[in-house]
Each structure stands twice: as structure tokens, then as C-alpha cells.
Design brief:
heterodimer, A: about 120 residues, Rossmann fold, 5 helices, 5 strands, about 20% strand, globular, B: about 180 residues, alpha+beta, 6 helices
Chain lengths: ~120, ~180
């Protein structure tokens, strides 16, 4: 299992990475902006992508759209943007989960495990 | 900037009420510490008297984190002394702030990111459309220098207002201010 975490905050990448590693057995890759997320997706081909929306170079929504052209990973949005347009746009892009910051570690765990359960049921 | 007045009026109503509680709990969530928030609206903003009114120590270094709302002439600055920044960092990362490196800086930026996110969510509901904001940037300097960055963008006019939110802790030496500036 491979997981890509895309967030421009080094702190947030490390925080989410620790939660993910403590929840599932996986290899974690990190990206520091939207462009990097697309690039890392291309070379790492992760099964799950946790991605922020407000990032430099390329926003999260744009990065998800580009990633979708290359493959079909499960995508979980983790963002401080708690606005209707973002939820609707994410839904249209087939995102599996939408988590708003600040979050409790259990929220990441719950959405991650639900996403994996849904994938195994397919 | 047709809707600047709506922006500041919504921000004033929200941050004087529920918004302040949401900000408090968001910061508490990140830092695992109980905070007390207070909100003050400065209806007549004057550059000269403003810095003095903030009661910041002119000889100390402060950390300032600035974000701009897109489509509005409005800004948010989170400002804290380095001791408070150290407390926040140690609560969030388990390490002390010996150096404001990329990791520590990003932890402080995340505090501002969440704060701006909460306010923009409320504004988005009020306006019925998306409200974008810039990625927060951090600087360390004397208070006057930090505020110069902000004041250069804000005009001193009858219509300029500021919302000043202060957070303190009973148990830790935490003192931080959030300043929301805009035309109204």
C-alpha cells in the first residue's frame, strides 16, 4: 500500500504522515505543492492520496484533476477551506473523503479505514 | 471592491460571537491548551495610534503571519511574541523553537491557515460564493516593522476598520493577537 500526502506545510505533512503510519501498514510519500503532487503521483503511483487544497504552484483541485487523468487512486481532501463550493467540487471529482482542519487524528483514521474498506468491497 | 463593506460587517458580527468560539476551539485543538479569546472592533482606525494601542513591546521580536483575502481589500495578521510562538510550537510539535526553520514556520502558518479558513467559511456562507485567501507568509521582526507590511496595504480612511482578537492562556505564557483589516 502506498500513500501520498500533499500539503505545503511541512508540519502538516509530518502530522498526517504519523497518523497514517500508525493506522495502516504502508509506504508514505510526500509532496509540498500541487505540481509536486502530480509529479510524485506519476513516479510513485500511490493507492491513496491525501491532499490539501490551498497550495502554491498548483491548487489541490487542479492537481486532483490531473491525477485523475493518469489513474484512479482514492483521494481524501484535508483542508482548512470549509466552504460549500469546495465540498461540491471535490464530490464531482470523485473524492472519497473531505476532512477540514483542524481535525482530530481519529478523523483521518476513520476516513482512511472507510476508504480502504470501500476499496476492498469493489 | 463592491462587497468590502459586507466583508467587514460579516466579519465583525461573526468574530464578536460564534466565530470567536470557533477560533478558540480550533487553536485549542491544535495546541491542547485552554485559551481565552476577546474581540474588540476598532471602528476608527488611525495608523499612528494603532501600534501603541496594541500594547506590544517595541524592543522585542514578534512573529507575524499574514494572509490576504482575494477579491476583497482585507487582510488577517496573526502576531505573537517569540515566547508565545515557542509555546505554540512546543504544544504542536513537541519541540522548542530554537530556530524558526521551515518546519516550525509551517506549524505557525498552519495556525493562521486554520484561522483564515474558519473566517472565510463564514463569509462564504454569507456571500453565497467562494472566498479565497492567500497562503499565509511568516516574518520575524519588531512590531512596527511587521505592522508596516500590513499598513502599507491598508489605507487610513473613515472606512477602514480593524477587528482585534486577543488570545491568552491561564496556564501558559501565551499571548497572541489576530488583526483583521478591511474597508467597510
Amino acid at each position: 500500500m502506498r500513500v501520498l500526502i500533499a500539503d505545503d506545510s511541512a508540519f502538516m505533512r509530518s502530522y498526517i504522515s504519523n497518523i497514517v503510519r500508525s493506522t495502516i501498514d504502508c509506504e508514505v510519500f510526500e509532496a509540498s505543492d500541487g505540481e509536486d503532487a502530480v509529479y510524485k503521483y506519476k513516479i510513485c503511483l500511490p493507492d491513496i492520496v491525501l491532499i490539501d487544497l490551498n497550495m502554491p504552484k498548483k491548487g489541490g483541485m487542479e492537481a486532483i484533476a490531473e491525477i485523475r487523468k493518469m489513474g484512479d487512486p482514492k483521494v481524501i481532501v484535508v483542508t482548512a477551506i470549509d466552504q460549500d463550493w469546495a465540498r461540491k467540487d471535490a464530490l464531482k471529482k470523485g473524492v472519497s473523503g473531505f476532512i477540514t482542519k483542524p481535525f482530530k487524528p481519529d478523523e483521518i483514521r476513520r476516513v482512511l479505514l472507510m476508504t480502504l474498506a470501500a476499496q476492498n468491497m469493489r | 471592491m463592491l462587497q468590502d463593506s459586507f466583508f467587514m460587517n460579516t466579519a465583525i458580527i461573526d468574530l464578536s460571537g460564534d466565530g470567536l468560539r470557533r477560533l478558540e476551539s480550533a487553536l485549542e485543538e491544535f495546541c491542547s491548551v485552554r485559551l481565552n479569546g476577546e474581540c474588540k472592533v476598532i471602528r476608527k482606525f488611525e495608523v499612528k495610534s494603532f501600534l501603541k494601542s496594541l500594547n506590544l513591546n517595541e524592543d522585542y521580536y514578534y512573529v507575524g503571519i499574514l494572509s490576504k483575502f482575494k477579491d476583497f481589500n482585507a487582510y488577517i495578521m496573526m502576531i505573537m511574541d517569540t515566547a508565545s510562538a515557542d509555546e505554540f510550537i512546543s504544544r504542536m510539535t513537541g519541540k522548542h523553537l530554537y530556530l524558526l526553520d521551515e518546519f516550525n514556520e509551517s506549524a505557525l502558518q498552519e495556525l493562521a491557515n486554520v484561522t483564515v479558513g474558519i473566517l472565510s467559511s463564514q463569509l462564504s456562507k454569507g456571500l453565497g460564493r467562494r472566498v479565497d485567501y492567500s497562503i499565509p507568509t511568516t516574518a520575524v521582526d519588531f512590531p512596527s516593522a511587521l505592522l508596516d507590511l500590513l499598513l502599507a496595504e491598508i489605507s487610513e480612511s473613515e472606512s477602514t476598520k480593524c477587528i482585534e482578537i486577543s488570545f491568552t492562556s491561564n496556564s501558559l505564557p501565551i499571548f497572541t493577537k489576530m488583526l483583521v483589516f478591511g474597508d467597510s
